[in-house]
Design a protein that fits this description.
This protein is an alpha+beta fold. It contains 18 helices and 15 strands. It folds into four domains: about 130 residues, no CATH class; about 120 residues, no CATH class; about 55 residues; about 110 residues, no CATH class. The strands form five sheets. It has a four-stranded mixed β-sheet with strand order 12-14-15-13. The relative contact order is 0.05. The N terminus is likely disordered. This is TniQ domain-containing protein. InterPro entries: TniQ.
Length: about 500
């Protein structure tokens, strides 16, 4: 087949197999039509011509109906190809479910997924030692290094994923999609709880994630049934104050993410589940209990306490108090018992405030999410890319502007794999050590976002730390500033010099 644009169906159209990943299916179709070494451009030429792939995108996300998946739950097509050696031996095609990051163990054969397969050009690092190509790997190579989980981990994984995988294998997509949001929701709750087990706040390096989560579930007797009732049961089981704190924080984060980009998790009553954990009726160590009106059950009907309102909204107590002081809650109830003051806020107004606050982010959140410092954050504000919202002494930014920045940078950047000595991080305080002033950085950013200055994206770096500019571009900016300074100095001095013609 020629390399010209394809406007009709390919001559050879192999049938897509059960749960076959779209990207590797396209490779299979292209090879069947005579192109032995497909390029990414070939994938995009063939993609719109096949009914099974026409609705797919080149990000490589799994496609099950119109189910939108959270970005943190899926792997892009650049990532390693994971697989179960037993499944792949039975049928040589890559399954879509293996692209779910949180799916780590095959519940059919009870084997941990391996990740040493690659497709040329598409998979990052496909030429690395120990990496096998999908079309060339042998059965013996598939089984090298295969391991099974320990019994406790196997029980935990089966409880979460077995029903979903069985539904996928049986081609019962509706049943699988009914379970998947609950599974992802439970997984993110366990992820949050697991961070309390280490001093660093991260899962231990070198230990499979599912192993750590299974250990937590077994230690605290947490059940993980992928259903709404199962989620409610898990929330009711949480009796450790630290677990409760991180789960509330995670639920607040999920609410914010879903408000910004709705996914299948929006099918779950997340706000109600969070309120269930807040109003569980137990007396927690950090909850004062003296007085008759302060306990949760004594709050007026339709109202919540000040502390619970702050937790539900996800803001600091100081910010909530500022809103109250400035009449943001005209229907608030203030109760005094002795020398102690209690504040109760209407639940409906608190919910409205939560939705509004979810559209805002703090400066600290921007710096953490983007992996930049204060100077980089200030530069983004100066060029008008971060929409600043000032509420009294509190500074916030529109959450939507973060998405716009990432999208624009991805559009104007060029990806590269290896760090080049001639490239310098764009959003890094060390850029000022290259004779670049803050005003220069603002000018550089304006040129970058206008597409007038080349920018490069390192595929493995997080946030905005992935973006680099060429060193000679920085040198050019420095030289232009020096010339401009010399020109201005000359003009200033020339005014005080006597002309030889007078």
């Amino acid at each position: 087949m020629s390399g010209n644009n394809i406007s009709s169906l390919p001559l050879c159209r192999p049938k897509i197999l059960t749960d076959e990943w779209i990207e590797t299916y396209l490779y299979r179709v292209i090879r069947a039509n005579g192109i032995r070494q497909p390029l990414l451009t070939d994938l995009e030429r063939f993609r719109p011509t096949l009914p099974a792939t026409a609705s797919s995108k080149p990000d490589g996300y799994p496609i099950w109906g119109d189910c939108a998946l959270p970005r943190w739950s899926v792997s892009t097509r650049l990532k390693k190809i994971r697989y179960c050696p037993a499944c792949l031996t039975e049928s040589r095609h890559i399954r879509s479910r293996w692209r779910l990051k949180l799916f780590e163990v095959c519940t059919i054969h009870h084997i941990r997924l391996k990740d040493d397969l690659a497709e040329p050009v598409m998979t990052r690092g496909y030429k690395e030692v120990g990496r096998y190509l999908v079309t060339d790997v042998t059965d013996e190579q598939l089984w090298v290094g295969s391991v099974c989980p320990m019994p406790s981990e196997r029980r935990h994984v089966e409880q979460l994923w077995a029903g979903f995988e069985r539904s996928i294998v049986d081609d019962d997509i509706s049943a699988a999609l009914e379970k998947l949001p609950c599974i992802l929701f439970l997984e993110t709750l366990f992820d949050a709880i697991a961070t309390t087990a280490t001093d660093s706040g991260y899962l231990p390096i070198g230990v499979p994630r599912s192993t750590s989560l299974a250990k937590i579930a077994e230690q605290f007797q947490y059940q993980a049934t992928p259903s709404i009732d199962g989620i409610r049961k898990l929330l009711d089981q949480i009796a450790v104050i630290e677990h409760r704190r991180v789960v509330l924080a995670r639920l607040r984060r999920v609410l914010g993410d879903e408000a910004n980009r709705p996914t299948c998790l929006s099918n779950l009553p997340i706000a109600d589940l969070r309120m269930r954990l807040l109003n569980d009726g137990r007396q927690w160590p950090d909850t004062p209990t003296r007085g008759l009106v302060h306990p949760p059950h004594a709050a007026p009907k339709g109202y919540v306490s000040f502390e619970k309102a702050a937790l539900l909204i996800g803001c600091t107590a100081g910010f909530l108090q500022y809103l109250i002081n400035n009449d943001a809650y005209p229907d608030a109830i203030f109760v005094q018992r002795g020398q102690t003051h209690y504040t109760f806020l209407p639940l409906q107004e608190v919910e409205a405030c939560r939705r509004w606050y979810a559209s805002l982010v703090t400066r600290e959140h921007v710096m953490s999410a983007f992996h930049i410092d204060k100077m980089g954050c200030s530069a983004l504000v100066s060029v008008g890319l971060l929409d600043q919202v000032q509420i009294g002494p509190f500074t916030f930014f529109q959450r939507s502007s973060l998405t716009n920045i990432c999208r624009r940078l991805e559009d104007v950047s060029r990806p590269f794999d290896a760090v080049d000595a001639h490239l310098h991080p764009l959003f890094c305080s060390s850029i000022t050590g290259t004779h670049i002033l803050y005003t220069d950085l603002i000018g550089i950013l304006m040129k970058v976002f206008d597409g007038n200055l080349p920018i490069f994206r390192h595929l493995t770096n997080p946030g905005l730390s992935a973006y680099f500019v060429e060193q000679h571009a920085l040198n050019r900016v420095h030289q232009l500033r020096k010339l401009e300074q010399a020109r201005r100095r000359y003009q200033t001095e020339a005014r005080y010099q006597l002309s030889l013609l007078t």
